[in-house]
Specification:
Organism: Asarcornis scutulata
Strand content: 5-15%
Helix content: 40-55%
Number of domains: 1
InterPro entries: GADD45, Ribosomal_eL30-like_sf, Ribosomal_eL8/eL30/eS12/Gad45
Shape: globular
Keywords: Cell cycle, DNA damage, Growth arrest, Nucleus, Phosphoprotein
Number of strands: 5
Protein name: Growth arrest and DNA damage-inducible protein GADD45 alpha
CATH topology: 60s Ribosomal Protein L30, Chain: A
Order of helices and strands: HEHEHEHEHE
Distance between the termini: 33 Å
Structural class: alpha/beta
Subcellular location: Nucleus
């Protein structure tokens, strides 16, 4: 087996748990209306009120990953989040993110889900076990020098 192969199994289980936790956090944030969707909306909020943002999600499928403008936006948002101690995750399956979020948003043209911010409307959200689990996952990944960990939302 190549060096480090056995250790890969542990993170995948952790990533599954993190994926479940993320789904729970998103569903709660939807019901509390504490989500900001879209690169431009996110950039505006990060500029005005970064202290209220508890989590930033970036999502792009393989085709979009080639989009230079989008990658520049991602790089700037990542830098801003790192500077402001905002946990950041990259969602590897944007289609699942859309399934979770779009049925609940207005039926206008497709919403930009490349960037999703979860804000903290109530201090009580800090006691949210799913959010705490995600924070731990982000911290663990940072210790492993993975500043923007990739997460997979579970398919249902």
């Amino acid at each position: 087996a190549p060096p480090g192969a056995p250790q890969r199994r542990v993170p995948s289980r952790r990533m599954e748990q993190a994926g479940d936790a993320l789904e729970e956090v998103l569903s709660k944030a939807l019901s509390q209306r504490s989500l900001t969707l879209g690169v431009y909306e996110a950039a505006k909020l990060l500029n005005v009120d970064p202290d209220n943002v508890v989590l930033c999600l970036l999502a792009a499928d393989e085709e979009e990953a080639e989009d230079a403008a989008l990658q520049i936006h991602f790089t700037l948002i990542q830098a801003f989040c790192c500077e402001n101690d905002i946990n950041i995750l990259r969602v590897s399956n944007p289609a699942r993110l859309a399934q979770l979020l779009l049925p609940h948003t207005a039926t206008e043209p497709p919403t930009d889900l490349h960037c999703v911010l979860v804000t903290n409307p109530h201090a009580s959200q800090w006691k949210d076990p799913a959010l705490s689990q995600l924070m731990c996952f982000c911290r663990e990944r940072r210790y492993a020098d993975q500043w923007v960990p990739v997460i997979n939302l579970p398919e249902r």
